[in-house]
Amino acid sequence: MAFSRLIEAAAAAEAPTIVIVLLLSFIFYLRRRNSSSSITRLPPGPFQWPVIGNLHQFGRLPHLSIQHLANKYGPIMWLRLGYYPVVVVSTTEMAKEFLKTHDLAFSSRPKSGVGEHLVYNYKSMGFSPYGDYWRHIRRVWMTELMTPKRLSSFRSIREEEVCSLMRSIWEKSEQGRVAVNVSKAIDWISSSIVWRTVAGKKCSEDRDGKDLCDMVKRLMLTVKEVNGREIIPCIGWFDLQGVTRRMKETHRIFDGVAQNIIDQHINGRKREQSSDVKDIVDVLLEMADTGAINIQLDSIKAIIFDVLTGGIETATSSLEWTMTEMVRNPDIARKLQQEIESVVGKHRTVTESDLPNIEYLQCVVKESLRLHPPAPLIFPRESTEACTVGAKRYVIPPKTRLMINVWAIGRDPAVWEDPLTFKPERFMGKDMDIKGRSDFRMLPFGGGRRGCPGAQMAIGNMELILAQLMHCFDWRAEGDPSELDMSEALETSLSRKHNLFAVPTLKLLNCI
Ligand SMILES: *[C@@H]1O[C@H](CO)[C@@H](O)[C@H](O)[C@H]1NC(C)=O
Q: How many angstroms does the Cα of residue 70 sit away from the middle of ligand 1?
């Protein structure tokens, strides 16, 4: 996260300006504090400094910083990140208060430069505030784009891409002689599936395709930079022009790509793909065409934005962790392979219809998401009204941001037995909801109304790719697997700090 860099930037700026800014904000801060303390009973929390609030207590891995604070102040805390008041929640019970009892009050999103400049003035479902537009676009997602029927219509895309991944892995490993960059393979498959599903295109074949991949990376970095800057507006303003310029430039590039995709779909249809699978852009254009559902061009582009930025990196980092756990825990990997084999046999590759029959596979995916959620803190929500929470009846004022430490919840020793051990068996025989609707013991997809709309698609993809990788190959780390480096790095999602390399050995000829 950019917090520490923000503070460095502040220190580097001219000292007199800083002093004035500090003084002004301190006065402002005292006034705010006086005006609000009489009516609210806020949760406990550390002292808040003027201007920066508690920013100095955040390191490069904010979920760890928060857990550290929560050990001292408890499962619900009151902090300030720069200018913004934040309520921070670190247990299942508290998460339930916010995602179930007060889900509606906390269903909005803060205003943001990304929302305004990058996604067509809040047309993206991810960045749009609570209201009619958001409800409308959410209905489009839930009733048109992410229905089981629609998802199964993309099945051939997934199966084709996964098969070609297996061949590519075997080639890259020079028939099992050298280690492959597993991180790269996973990155490639996640991008390919999402791009084909949304736009009927592939991202990494030719030059044109490489540009597409780079564009998504650029989008993600811009979102991260802008959100970081906005935490302390008065420091962000030092380079506001520069940031806004970069954001507009990124917007221009994205808009060009999105317009191009839409044009190609309208005239002459998509070039390369001969398959008759309707991709997401097809579906949206058809809706716009028939007028069955009111959807404007900007909304279509914003949906493309949401799918690309929400669906690729998160999937990549999740699967990278799952494969890491497989390499690190050979016994579990072997058990998974046996379970797959007992359903699929040794003479054909896994298909999607096999997946529901391999319970252990689902457990491995869940266990991996529990320990390694791609978004360790949910994307901040903002309250639109005051609400009273918990047994101590804290009053949370409107316009408070909500942060849930998903990472800590998944590792809470009060909820999980032996929480740091990778043990898929804990999910056997339990049909546990992991989408944050009825169960709040792990929240890899957030939860409540603002939960990730693509959760089902993400889980399905993970299961298929993992099953195929494990059915086709045995995997071996170079060196001692139990010493595999497990450091985390928070870029745009919580991924491995170092890329994973492993040597595959072919188990099934049909795979290549
Ligand atoms: C491995 O793949 C990752 C992700 O694509 C990439 O960033 C990295 O440079 C690759 N490492 C090597 C040594 O090729």
A: 36
Structure tokens belonging to residue 94: 């508290």
Which pLDDT does position 39 carry in this prediction? 55
Q: Whose CA is nearest to atom 13 of ligand 1?
A: 181
Helices (H), 312-411: 313-328, 330-344, 359-371, 406-410
Q: What is the dihedral of CA 424, 425, 431, 435, to 10 degrees?
A: -20
Out of 178, 180, 184, 213, mutate this one to test ligand 1's pocket (max ligand atoms within 8 Å of CB): namely 184
Alpha carbons 266 and 261: distance in angstroms, whole number: 9
pLDDT tens digits, 352-389:
999 999 999 999 999 999 999 999 998 889 999 999 99
Q: State the binding site.
A: 452
The pLDDT assigned to 201 comes to: 81
Q: What is the pLDDT of residues 270-304, one digit of tens each?
A: 545 555 789 999 999 999 988 777 889 999 999 99
* Protein residue with its CA nearest to atom 4 in ligand 1: 184
Of 447, 382, 400, 449, give the one whose Cα is nearest residue 109: 382
Pull the structure tokens for residue 44: 């406990």
Could you identify the residue written with the tokens 């890491």?
Answer: 324
CA-187 nearest atom, ligand 1? 5
Helix ranges restricted to H, 49-173: 62-73, 92-96, 113, 132-140, 148-153, 155-172
Which residues participate in the annotated binding site for heme? 452
Atom number, ligand 1, closest to the C-alpha of residue 181: 1
- 3-state DSSP assignment of residue 489: strand
Going from the Cα of 180 to the center of ligand 1, the distance in angstroms, rounded, reads 10
| Distance in angstroms (rounded) separating the CA atoms of residues 424 and 4 | 36
Cα distance between the two ends of the chain: 41
| Closest CA to ligand 1's atom 12 | 181
Q: How far is CA 17 from CA 7, 31, 237, 345, in A?
A: 14, 21, 12, 70
Cα–Cα distance for residue pair 248/120, rounded to 1 Å: 11
In the predicted model, residues of the chain with pLDDT beneath 50 are 1-16, 34-35, 37-38, 271
SS3 378: coil
Which protein residues are within 6 Å of ligand 1, measured from CB?
181, 183-184, 187, 499
pLDDT 10s digits, 138-152: 999 999 999 999 999
